[in-house]
Design goal:
single chain; two-stranded antiparallel ribbon; mainly alpha; 41% helix; 4 strands
């Protein structure tokens, strides 16, 4: 199993042009080692599972929805409707040529 060393962390800091205090280095060493341990755990499972082709998977339980279409009743409760869509307030203004669209 690989181990992250303080030298590796210092080399990473040089390459990324970051600087860390000794406390930060100690915390990062633990965090990086935990990430590496997780990745090694995942590697243990690689190949130990059966690959399934998507054609073999049933995405539905076979039930068929029957009954009346209640979409028009649903749309009656919406504050603003256009055709079969519920209109909602603009969340993000899109600017083009200085005008809000």
């Amino acid at each position: 199993m690989e181990k992250i060393t303080k030298e590796m962390l210092e080399q990473l800091a040089v390459l990324t042009k970051l600087s860390f205090s000794e406390e930060e280095k100690d915390k990062l060493l633990v965090d990086f080692q935990n990430m590496l341990d997780c990745m090694n755990k995942i590697r243990e499972f690689e190949g130990s599972y059966e690959k399934v082709e998507l054609d073999d998977v049933a995405f539905t339980n076979g039930e068929v929805v029957e009954g009346e279409d209640i979409s028009s009743e649903f749309l009656k409760n919406a504050p603003s409707v256009e055709d079969v869509y519920i209109k909602v307030p603009l969340a993000i203004a899109k600017q083009d040529m200085g005008e809000v669209l």
